[in-house]
Amino acid sequence: MKKISVVIPAHNEEGNIPLIYQRVKDVFSTLENYRFEIIFVNDGSRDDTQKEIEELAQNNDEVKYIEFSRNFGHQHAVKAGMDSSTGNAMISMDADLQHPPELILELIKRWEEGFDIVYTIRTYPKQISAFKRKTSTLYYKFLTRISDVNLSEGGGSDFRLMDASVVDVVRNMNEADIFLRGLSNWMGFRRTGVHFTAGERATGESSYNLKKMMKFAFTGITAFSVKPLYLAAYLGFIFSALAAVGYGIYVIHSFISKTEISGWASLIMTVVFFGGVQLIILGIMGIYLGKIFNQVKERPNYIIRSKNF
Fold this sequence. Notes:
Keywords: Glycosyltransferase, Membrane, Transferase, Transmembrane, Transmembrane helix. Helix content is about 50%, strand content about 15%. The chain is of the alpha/beta class. The chain folds into two domains: about 1-225, Spore Coat Polysaccharide Biosynthesis Protein SpsA, Chain A (Alpha-Beta Complex), CATH 3.90.550; about 225-295. The chain has an eight-stranded mixed sheet with strand order 7-5-6-4-1-2-3-8, sandwiched between helices. Helix 9 packs antiparallel against helix 10 (about 265-295).
């Protein structure tokens, strides 16, 4: 029998743990010649998520869990589950049931057809705000243009299947700021996509606020591209050239018209403008230096407080 490892990161998902377990179990009950394990990764939850997981594990041998010592982030939680998976294939999905477990059947079907990575292409239901849909679409279009990976529109989802051979490759990576959505594309292998409509969160509220989304966006951009550094250099050359040309014209005009060069307001605005440009460039460079700083320290990506296997 083939074995499928289902990795589910959870952060304050106490109400969703029993629900997603039952739905995943129902899916595999329809499959012959397959067995499964569910690896819950408790990413520093402050509610009773760990208690719910442990109760499931006591009564169900297929339930495994990893408890972090604190919140290390969603991507590291998925990576921890992948590091501990033992199946012929691994499926990662969120605990809030926005990733429908019933789609597992289609993912496994495509895997059996010979694909190493089966990713999902998400579309949002009508009740999701137009702002969230539009910003998500624009972000992945921008990421595709500015980086070295090509994320399909709507393909930015951590709901995917990976063959064990792909999981082994990811397991040997030790990036401080890991971005699995980009890595699954960058690695190559045989890939195919499956469309799905995101469901509603079953219980609780999402802890993925604007600050976390912005940090995740910058991680994706800087993890797969140095183009922002080139952009900073180009901006420097362009504005320097514009300043030289503009000042030259201003000087020539003052000689021809026999007027003095004056205008403190324009001078101050120019200084402030170019000062802002310099800060932007320094900020871009600082982000990359910060990533190097975190990487060379070689601290572990996560710390396990407890596990049952």
